[in-house]
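User: Can you write out an input/output pair for a complex, sequences first and structure second?

Assistant: Here is one pair. Inputs:
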Amino acid sequence: MPDFFIKLLDNVVFLMVLLPLVGAALVVASARMGEEAIRRTALVNVLFSCALAIGMVAHFSSGAADSVEVLVDEDDHLVAPRETRDAGGPRLATPMRWLAASDGKRVVGPDVRLSFGVDGLSLWLIAMVPFVMLAALCAAQDTAGERPAVFHALLLGAQAGAIAAFAARDVVLFVVALETTLLCTFLLLGNWGGYDRRTVARKFLAYNLAGGLLVIVGLIGLVIVEQRMRGGAVASTAFATPATFAYERLVDPLPSASPETNTLPGPLELAGSSTARGEQWAAAAPWIFAALLIGFAIRAGTFPFHTWLTSANLEATASTSVFLTAVQINLGLYGLLRFVVPLFPDMCLIAADGLVGLGVFGAAYGGLLAIAQGDLKKLATYVCVAHIGICLAGIFSLTQTGLSGAVLLLVTHGLGIALFLSLIGLLERRYRTRDMEPFGGLAARRPRLAGALAFAALTLAGAPGLGTFLGETLAVMGVYRGFAPGGTHLPRTALALVATLLVAWALFGMIGRILRGRFREPGSGMIYASQSGTSPLPFRDGMRGASPDDGDSVVAIPLPPRAPAAPRDASWSDLCPLLPMAAAVIWLGTMPQFFLDETGPAVDRALAGYPRLRLPPAAAPAIEPPERGGSDGFSIRGESRFAAPRSTEFGSKLGDDGEFALEGPP
Amino acid sequence: MNASVALIPGIPVAGWLLLAAGGKRLDGGTVRIVTAAACAAMFALVCGWSTNLGGSQATEFRATLIDPWISIGGDGGLSVALKLRFDALAGAMLAAIALAGLAVALRGIEGTPGERRRFAGGLLLCLAAASGTILADDFLSFLVLWSLSSLAAGRMLEVRRERPADAAAARSLVLAQRLTDVVLAIGVFSIWSWLGTLDMATVLGGNFGGEGDFLAGGEAEIEPTIASGFAAMSQAPRWLVELDERQPGSATLLAACLLAGAVGRCAQFPIFAWLRDAAKTRPAAIAAIVGVVMLPGVYLLARCTPLFAAAPEGRLLAMALGGMTMVLAGVIACSQSDAKSAVAFAAVSQFGCAFLGLGLGTEAAFVAAVMLGTTHAAAYAVMLSAVEDRSAADRSAEDADADLPAHLDRRVAAIAKWSFASGAVLVASGLWGAHAIFGELWNASAAVDASAADGDSGPSPAVPLAGLLLSFGMAGLFLASLALSRAFVLGFLGNRNGAGLRVVPVESEPISLGSRLQPLILAAAAAAPLWGAWKLLSVDARPFGGGVGLPIALAGMVCGWWGARAGDRLPTALRRMLAPVSRLGRHRFYLEDVFFLGIVLPLRAVAQIGRFVDWFLIDGLLVGLPARLAALAARGTAPLREMGARFYLLSMVLATAVLLGVLMWRS
């Protein structure tokens, strides 16, 4: 491969952030060239992003890009990225100093870096974003209104922000990217959409700013505590310790474990190694943990903070909805994966029981409410809430299986919901409604649209053979064998499985209602809109019409003068942009090992601070009496945390009371 | 070469892809030929592998396709390889589903071209998923394919897209089976959690060699038969026994979870509500469901016999559910007014007999149950395919469905009639299995008496309530025979009141290829029960059960014939006596109502309540309350509120700046 391409691929993440920004500028520049030109410009930009995403995955998985440590030297100068063979570490890193207080020789103040990198956790999420944006752009036809250039520019800005947040290896950069995404989404939501768009945009902002504030406070607190602890650790050295925002330094204990790097220890190690500093950490950690947990939970729209998502999604345009449900909420869950799980093992282990319970309850709640919906977008939103719940449960199962399943579900859910919502957008454009009531038997007369909609619904329903099924299964398996101390995991597992059943029930019900049966579609003289704040159009006043569906009043509204042409089936040009996502969902469902190979090391790294459930190799011939380490067998901090590995025989996994023995990390 | 066993599920997949690629260009005849060819090739391949298995001194053949398929976390994590296992049990099951598929492909692919293509696609997908389920050698891929077969069955049911009833039936099937699959999944997760692996060979306690080997069965005289396979499966795996000692109830829990999966798949009591909806669709779809989709349920119980060996309560539960299903489904079958429902519920009743045998757990009962399941799957598929012809004629006569042309002339009607009768004979030959099961139950009952007398339980297991289960089984056999006989009379001969087959001669329509091939199918299908009967001769068939089963079946057939022919002329006293039972049967013992009132309605109500909770409680607490407080505080002062919002934003920015400043100052 030519060097040019190799260099290009080495900096592919940076390019993936830069490209949408350039695209946004081009779109704004071409504002006077008409909507079609704007759309094409944005589309070409996103297609380039898709190509870069494929190149990134190929380059990452080829092993050409080794892990790098984005660290500093003894004087805290930024050094060139150093390649390591550390599996699970960030690769394709592009660290650049951004904001640093320096006296000319060394850094003396806060050191903020424009540092991007990819690891197994973020790889697939980053790669997913351009394809989701492709769906969002397809759904954006006819919805951009009077300012298509701004609309598309904001969409591209949101894309850049999301990729930057997923790839950020610096805390400040992460926050800036997160808030950029929030701002773009807020503007998209407030300016384009349904009648109540401004109200829900304010609600969206209130929730997410509150969540964002908590995240910022948590991260800054983390930085301060880390700096104080590190300052104590190097008090004997000559120089003061500048605040660092580098993710590796804050979170990852591994770099300091290597004597070659001569770097400073991370908070995890400091907490375990010195009583005084450990106390500092112990005093601050619960507050930081709580701030980050609640902040990211709000951003992810987990139960009970999901109401901003349901409101916003209903009034948003189809493309904003696609971005909101496929990317925006993933950012929140990614924050939990990236910061909360690796950084606070002790807190997570204490809270895991409740969080898994909350997750599965939220999943069941979302599934249950999805059944009662008569509006397609509402249905999709509650399915989304259910999947978020399962992801949360998988993440806080704190097992490799659960975490891997959660990441797989994040990606496949993102793809599936993008497919589904973009098709709903198509339906809404054609028929000017998204209520299920006026539809029926679409499969007979609109086979392409119906087929695509059925596939998307099956994806979300977790049909076997598709990635969502495996994601849900692995996440629930993680829940079953989860780490929450005490009690049995069976009720939560059963509830999680029931939640998947409820989601399937809702989606199969949707298929039965609008795709099967006798053909009917909204008449040419009227449009239909739900009364409960779900109007797809910027006008809602009209005469009350048909009977309510599932409690929603349906309003029949005379068509505006610019009535669309007679509804027709989806064209191949409508569906082609969605095909890569469909192929990815099938591929992840049938051949998941490629995904898991890349994700596994990063998951291992995230769980490095946890004691591991060690299960026996199968069919072991010998049975030995179990040994239990520590006073309670579940000590987290202190010497008993890393108990020596026990026997690997089958019998050793069960204690006298039938519980598993634990093993510490190597 | 070794991996070519993957062709068994691969051939239907290839056929499905061919149909999908062909699209609308394929006419009905081509669709039928492609489907039938795929089924025939699959059957031939299964026969070839069975012969291969018999020719070598091996009890089974295993091949690894993808290793690892899923691997997470290394040691102690999840590691699954995509492996296949072919043994005598799998061979028998695969032969049965291939035959059933062939019968349906030849006789049941009717309707508009689009419907034919969709139905054939669903059938092939069902075949692929079901055969993959049977061949799967680990529980995770088993679970995936198991669920996939359910989904494919749903697709097959809803080929007539404009019929809401068909879509409702598909939804009902998929959701009911998914409900039980949830329980099955808990069982699979439990296995993984307890043992750390999902490999079937390890879980079921066998010791196996490497990849792709023909594995010696040990002694040279061991033949690769179901009976010899049972010897290896009759012992409970040590891990489960020890686990059950540590955690009492574990084995029972596992058995109950596996049983729940099988119950949902085979429409056993109390999960047969979905069959009522499915029976409203076309008979060919029911034939495929009975012949292809239900059989893996029997296979699951048969394959997991070692796990049930450690859980006597699980076995008793399987027997109880099987016995109850035999009686209840028999009553339902007898009270149905259409032939396909009657035959479908009769099939379910007979699958209950297979559950009875598998729960009993003796060698003779095991072999008999497997034989019963396989022969009945194929035979009922043949019978229901004959009903399809009958229904096609009926529809054309009433002009109820203009999309379905009549393919039935008098010659075909005769073939359909005798197909049904031949299927019934096949069922009767398969009842050898029922006889053996009854014999074993009789001995078990005797063992209970003996153990009560002197504490010696004898060679058969002492099964509590064995006498009651035996009574259930015999009653079920009587009712199923009666229902089949009644369905044959009412469906093909007509009663004395004049109701009967109305045939519209369509001279221009030739006799279909499927009709001509019917005798061949029947001959092939007959081979299975004959082989099973021969195998049974090698075990003690328990003369009492064998002796009493046949007269009961014959009595049922005679009663059914007489009752159907008599029609309204039945004695008034008898009609009065049977009326309540018949009413209960027609309403399927109100189980659907119980299900609806107990699960569906509460869930819907909770969902409606949840909407209010969501909008008023959660949103009200988190947003509404603060907003109202703010509104009260700034009543009538919109600018103040705007200012408040701006202040909020500004304070956010300032707070961040201050924090950063503090940070810099501290640095």
